[in-house]
Amino acid sequence: MRQTTSVDREAGYELLKTGSIVNFEIVKTDIHEGPDPSEFSVEIQLAFPPDPETEETDLRWGAFGFLFVIGTLSFADARPREASVIDYVENDEFLLGDFIGSLRWEGAALRFSADYLRGRRMKTDVVLQPDGSGRLTTTGRGMTPVRWLERLQGEGRMRLVKS
Fold first, then answer.
1. 59: which residues sit within 8 A by CB, 6+ positions away?
2. Taking the CA atoms of the chain, what radius of gyration do you get in angstroms?
3. Do 65 and 19 touch, CB atoms closer than 8 A?
4. β-pairing, 133-139 with 120-128?
5. For all residues of the chain together, what is the average pLDDT?
6. Which of 13, 50, 59, 83 has the fewest CB atoms within 10 Å, i.e. is most exposed?
7. For the purposes of burial, counting CB atoms within 10 Å of the CB of 77, is it exposed (0-12), middle (13-18) or buried (19 or more)?
8. Which residue stretches of 2-153 are H helix?
9. Model pTM score
10. Is residue 136 part of a domain?
11. Do the domain assignments include residue 157?
C-alpha cells in the first residue's frame, strides 16, 4: 500500500465532495456480451443537464471531481483477478496520483481510464464531452457501475469517512 500525505488526502476529500454534487442523468444502459458470460461490458450513456440560469453544465466546475468519485468507487469495489492477487492489498486507497495517472485529454473530451491498479481489476473507462454528455463503460464488473451512479443520485447510502 502506498503512503498518502495529508495534503493528498485533503485534496481527495475536496474532489469527492465536489464530484458527489454534480448533477447528471442516466440516459441509456447497454449490456454487451463478452467472451464468457461473466465478462460482459456495461455501457452507460450520461447527460449533464445545463443550469437554467447559466446554461452551463456542472462539468464546468465538477468534471474532475465526478471522475475522481467514479475512480474511487471503482477502486473500492475492484478485486484481483488471476495473477493480480500478488499486488492486491485489502485496505488500499485510491490516491490522487492514481487518478492523475488515469486521466488524459482526447480531443476536447476528458477521459478517465483504469485497467489494473495495484492488483485491483478496475476495467473502468469514463469519457466526458464538452457538450454535457458522457459515457461510463466497465468490463467484467457486473452491474456495479449502475449501483455507483444510483448512490451518487441519492438512491443508496454514501458518506465521506475521514481516517
1. 22, 48, 66, 128, 130, 132, 134
2. 16
3. yes
4. antiparallel
5. 89
6. 83
7. middle
8. 6-19, 59-77, 96-101, 144-152
9. 0.88
10. yes
11. no
Q: What is the span of the domain harbouring residue 30?
A: 6-152
- The answer to whether the CB of 130 falls within 8 A of the CB of 109 is yes
Helix, strand, coil % in the chain, rounded to nearest 5: 35, 25, 40
Number of domains in the chain: 1
Task: Kindly state whether residue 161 falls inside one of the protein's structural domains.
Answer: no
Q: In the numeric block, which cell numbers belong to residue 52?
A: 437554467
Check if the beta carbon of residue 22 is closer than 8 Å to that of residue 56.
no
Quick check: 32 and 125 in contact, CB under 8 A?
Answer: no
pLDDT, tens digit, 9 for 90 and up, residues 116-145: 999 899 999 999 999 999 999 999 998 999
Residue type, 162: K
β-strand partners of 10: none
All cell numbers assigned to 162: 475521514
Q: Is 32 helix (H, G, I), strand (E, B) or coil?
A: strand
pLDDT given at position 84? 61
Q: What is the spatial distance between Cα 139 and Cα 143, in angstroms, rounded to a whole number? A: 10
Tell me how many degrees the CA angle 118-135-9 measures, rounded to the nearest 5. Answer: 40
